[in-house]
Amino acid sequence: MTLLCVPLVARTVEEMVADAAAAAAAGGDLVEIRLDFIQGFRPREHLPLLLRGCPLPALVTYRPSWEGGQYEGDDTTRFETLRLAMELGVDYVDIELKVADKFMSFISGNKPEKCKLIVSSHNYEYTPSCEDLANLVARIQAVGADIVKVATTAKDIVDVSRMFQVMVHCQVPMIGLVMSEKGLMSRVLAPKFGGYLTFGILNAAKTSASGQPTVEELLNIYHIRHIGPDTKVLGLIANPVKQSKSPILHNKCLQSVGYNAVYLPLLGDNLASFLETYSSPDFSGFSCSLPFKVDAVKCCDEHDPVAKSIGAINTIIRRPDGKLVGYNTDYIGAISAIEDGIGGPRSKDAAISPLAGRLIVVAGAGGAGKAIAYGAKEKGARVVVANRTYEKAVSLANAIGGQALRLADLETFRPEEGMILANATSLGMYPNTDGTPISKKALSFYDMVFDAVYAPKVTRLLREAEECGVKVVSGVEMFIRQAIGQFEHFTGGIEAPESLMREIAAKYT
């Protein structure tokens, strides 16, 4: 079982002792005591205080500045401290590969049987090739490491795949982690690829390396205790991706139905490269968001007819034969939310939508804009597409038989009463929450405003529309409804737990 290690980076011994207790209470398996973070550290006085009352097994690290740590002193003092930790019964000691031979000579090869030696190498610039990583692992093994630790940095999310390849072939226990937000996958999927341990921090202020998730996230969102070699990998590939609530929603729903999969936020730069790199059947399904929904059409081998007509995909499924199939669940999610938002008397003919005959202005001509424009046209609406890049508005408008405008034209566009506005741009999305596609003054032209942005739940656009007395529909509704479709694709037809989805969305958006 992959251990969950909580790094302790407090500046005082007292705070570090308190954090060790918090780590145990949070569900950690061991703590990493980072001695180099303690101000005024005095080994013979402080080490016994840190180790004797520690509620969890302890890993002691005294990281020098030349390896990314805080210690500025000489190696002899550092080595004496690590040897003292061994004598006091510590469970693990971490020493850097660059000085591992010197350290082994210093302790004359004498190491308590209980104590395991972790020999580590950190690359804060990039992730080497598989061949170079394998050679590095061999060098670490050769100096007498009980556990190999290699930490690199992801410039692109595909870099993580090289660490996975080396980990699964390593003949001794290995910790293989890739730092930065693009390397998060390495930390969550450590149990799938045989990692000896992974790190989870107590909170965002107590991090020891970039890209570390919290203990709570690892245990309660990603369910790391249940990840194993057979676990399917799902996720949202987008840029940015940090703001998305999809990992919370999908993971809790997957857990509720007992489906063996984990859903990750995947910060990508190139969709085709990502899909080509992570081509194993275990990487079985992905949500696509900005800016990849249109690119996804070219990446898929087959397309659902609706997705092909729209020209945008938000869901990719990898079949057992390796073929990629693209779907668009944004279409149903957005249009059904808008229809319910319009409300009012319904036609006796259930096939006639409340959108029929209405004028809807779609702001944005990307993936979400295409889905809404196509869906509205199918429901009998008259569609106007407004986009910052006018040529893209023209292209989409021509495809669905609508009218094109520049986004700036919305300030004076008022051909009739009772219009509907649907924002399908990223304006107003976290972290740029001040953005809006249209001024408050121009919002009074509309009867209803829908915003596909759901983080934050109440965007500037929706807030200002409500202040103008205009009916609003939050992007949370689209988020839930498109997620229902995605969940059923991901799980091969298991019914989505809609009530749970709504409960989660209400709590986290």
Automatic annotation (TrEMBL):
InterPro entries: Aldolase_TIM, Aminoacid_DH-like_N_sf, DHquinase_I, NAD(P)-bd_dom_sf, SDH_C, Shikimate_DH-bd_N, Shikimate_DH_fam, Shikm_DH/Glu-tRNA_Rdtase. Residues 236-316 form the Shikimate dehydrogenase substrate binding N-terminal domain. It comes from the Eukaryota. CDD domains: DHQase_I, NAD_bind_Shikimate_DH. Residues 354-414 form the Quinate/shikimate 5-dehydrogenase/glutamyl-tRNA reductase domain. Residues 475-503 form the SDH C-terminal domain. Transmembrane segments: none annotated. Pfam families: DHquinase_I (PF01487), SDH_C (PF18317), Shikimate_DH (PF01488), Shikimate_dh_N (PF08501). NCBIfam families: aroD. HAMAP family: AroD, Shikimate_DH_AroE. This is Shikimate dehydrogenase. It comes from Urochloa decumbens.
